[in-house]
Amino acid sequence: MISAVRAKRKLVVGVVASAALLAIAAVVTVIQVGTAMQLPPKDSSAEKVLRVYLRAAKAHNCAVTEALSDGSDERSVAWCGGRSSSLFSNHPDLLAYKNIGSVSRVSASEDGGVAEECIQVDVTETNMNGAAPGALPGWQFCFDRTSSGWRLTNEGYG
After folding, report:
1. Kind and range of the H or E element at 135?
2. pLDDT over 70 (residue 48)
3. Global pTM?
4. What is the model's pLDDT at position 43?
5. What's the pLDDT score for residue 2?
6. Measuring CA to CA, how many Å separate 21 from each of 2, 14, 15, 26, 84?
7. Helix, strand or coil for residue 18?
8. CATH no. for residue 63?
């Protein structure tokens, strides 16, 4: 009798654990699909990718800003604010942006072997390491062409 009760209890625990794992997998899949649906197509211009990136940063969408960044260094400081929904914790917070400039192309010979497209934007920020909160006129976002499309690889002044 006791072994039958134990067997039923193990079955119930197994079913509950399986259901919990399926629920977690479903949530992760929805997050991944949701992020993929927000990313620009691979053939989008660097300017289009920047505009998607800036909208996501202003909305504190770490999943999108990290997905549009290439390299762990850039993903770790992707603009989206210090949100707990990110695997990284050192995110500057984009409060506003304006005056998106034209694309400036940097040749591979000028950039150590990889051609970049850079675009200046006037940004207002907080929570950035090494910068006082406020306006950063002419902040430059630079993108490299990857197999996934243009991705942010460098930013700053100069």
Report:
1. strand 134-146
2. yes
3. 0.71
4. 96
5. 60
6. 28, 11, 10, 9, 22
7. helix
8. 3.10.450.50
